[in-house]
Amino acid sequence: MKRILPLAIALAGAVFAQEPVIAPFWQTVFYYEVDSNANDLYNDLNLPDTIRQYTRVPATWESSDTLFLGHDGKIKGRLLGENKEVTLTATMKNLESASGQTEKKEFTISIHGFEPYSNYLFVYFPANDNENIYYALSNDGFNYTAMNGGKRVVAADTVSVKKGLRDPHVMRGPDGWFYMVNTDMKSSEGWSSNRGMVLMKSKDLINWKHSTVHFPDRYKGKNFANVTRVWAPETIWDDTYDNGDGTKGRPLVYFSLLTNDGTIEYDQVFFAYANKDFTDLESDPIYYYSRGKSTIDMDIVYNPADKYYHAFYKNEGDGGISKVRALELTKSNGTKPANWYRKKDGLQQTTEAVEGAGIFKLINQGTWILMYDCYMNGHYQFTSSTDLENFTFVQNTEMKGAFTPRHGTVIPITAAETAALMKAFPTPDFEPRVIEEPDSIGVCDGKKVVAPCSGTKIIPYSKVGDGGWNESLDLKVAKGATVTFGPHPWDGKIWSWEGPNGFKSTDRENTLKNVDGDFSGYYTVTYTNETGCKSQAKIKMVVDDPDKPYKEPDTTTTIVSRNQRDYTKPMRLNRNPVYFDLLGNRLKNKPRNGVYVQK
After folding, report:
1. How remote is the C-alpha of 260 from its chain's centroid?
2. CA 37, 42, 47, 52: dihedral to nearest 10 degrees?
3. For the segment 367-377, what is each residue's pLDDT rounded down to a tens digit?
4. How far apart are alpha carbons 448 and 80 in whole angstroms?
5. Interatomic CA distance for residues 150 and 142, integer angstroms
6. Quick one: which H or E segment has residue 252?
7. For labelling alongside 502, which of 272, 326, 553, 573 has CA 20 to 30 A away?
């Protein structure tokens, strides 16, 4: 008798089969058509003590490396910038065995690495009469502040043949370089006026080396010399590409082509690999994908959760966003296209005309953002998805003032990169959030292992009366004053306060009026960021009140061993004691010897 295997459902509430799979009890279907968080785990697994089939069957779980994953399914540590695989073993009785023998099954869990980023950079061009490169910064990925006072950061007339740069796409390479590609075009000369692209390379997003690929010259004597459009080039790193010198990995450049000689009758996507210096394309363009009619603005991302490449593009003429997917970028080491399939249309969450689809992932979250330019109505629209299949509306971000983005890219950047960009391109109206690297908890194969997550740095702003905001953890104020606490990040959603005189609040900003000595003490503020990690700050406020002078609380903690206890003093009995070791770890039982703390 065969049954529907419940194990995938049992592993976690967020892990469930999308379609039924008939299999013997121990057949592994954990990775077959599932919401496979196990392939790219961000959050703890909820491992059950029992598996319900027809009876309750005891189940135990064991992790192969508790530095990263506990036996209870909770994430204990992460590598920086890369995933870590851990084997999780389930032990339980075989329901199909008459003897009820115990069997084991192993599952590979890939724990998502900590991403050392704090902010988002939007790279774009602003208008058809201003085809230059601009930057904007964001803390949340949806709301942006234009950099450099709303002035360009790369001048098109210094790098491009046509003196115009459109559709910038930026990729962070694993080799430490940033790669940018642009449409080399000036729209005032017509929509079929561009003949190539601009390749750019930078270590810091500030200083760029550039080269042009002008198709009439580069492919002279071939049909590619007859292009009328080379639109919206993008790059993706292909780590499987064999360079022929013992190394692997190369930027793959893909773009839409149209010729005037009938060989490419409508816009179709082609690809070619860049050379090692990122100054040219190594080969003739190779056909990549077409939906059967004009196909432009393709953006490809890899999702480790389902192990597919997802390619989003515009249905030119239909005004919508579609996508296809593939298991690999190319075949035969970059000489043949991938097998793109499972076409899905209408991913946009609007009836407006859209273009310039861009995909990026939120920092340290398993949520993808699909954005696109609603070019007829003056705003960008942002949508979200956890599987790159189903999208929901998040918000429309209006183009106004200095921020008027057209077809660009969003990438996450570190706090240090943000600071360097703000120094090079002053942005006084933007206050960047800083997400610190989590504490180190060990080393694995020579690589640092850090705690599962890190809280957002709290900036403890406060003001007295109508005065200005000051950053301080130590306040001294006069009796009768009005004090306002207003910590940042200002756009933070989850705040919690505790303080003297029973003070509690869940608001970010709090005002205390007519303060006296009862208000003196420590105000503890806790902020929970979007990844669920908490950060905390203690603000000390002392009110100058002679009638109620401030006295510093005694915060010393006495830790004693059995041999040090003074039995001459009366001892308060605790009928339900809880024990901790010196590192603060809770113990299951009273220790047999050594030093401990009883609470």
Report:
1. 42
2. -30
3. 999 999 998 88
4. 7
5. 18
6. strand 248-259
7. 573
Q: How far apart are the first and last CA of the chain?
A: 54
pLDDT tier, 99 (very low <50, low <70, confident <90, very high otherwise): low
Residue-wise pLDDT for 492-517, tens only, equals 789 999 999 999 999 999 999 999 99
Domain topology for 461-544 = Immunoglobulin-like (2.60.40)
Other CB atoms within 10 Å distance of the CB of residue 17: 18
CATH, range 119-424: 2.115.10.20
What percentage of the chain reaches a pLDDT higher than 90? 75
- In sequence order, the β-bridge partners of residue 91 are 60, 104
Report residue 23 as tokens: 């299999």
What is this structure's pTM?
0.83
Cα-based distances in Å from 44 to 12, 34, 458, 555, 585:
9, 17, 25, 34, 19
CA dihedral for 275, 279, 283, 287, sign (positive or negative): positive
8 Cβ neighbours under 8 A, 6+ residues apart: 15, 16, 17, 29, 30, 34
- Asked whether the beta carbons of 5 and 95 are under 8 A apart, the reply is no
Residue pair 321/314 in contact (Cβ under 8 Å)? The answer is: yes
* Pair of tokens at residue 575: 């009928």
pLDDT digits (tens, 9 = 90+) for 477-489: 999 999 999 999 9
List, for residues 329-339, the tens digit of each pLDDT value.
999 999 999 99
Distance CA 283, CA 548 (A): 81
| pLDDT exceeds cutoff 90 at 542 | yes
Q: Is the pLDDT of residue 23 over 90?
A: no
If phi over 0 gives left and psi between -120 and 50 gives alpha, with beta otherwise, what is residue 319?
A: left
Residue pair 469/461 in contact by the 8 Å Cβ criterion: yes
Q: Where are the domains of the chain?
A: 3-111, 119-424, 461-544, 557-599
pLDDT tens digits along 33-78:
223 578 999 999 888 765 544 344 567 889 999 999 999 999 999 9
pLDDT at 213: 98
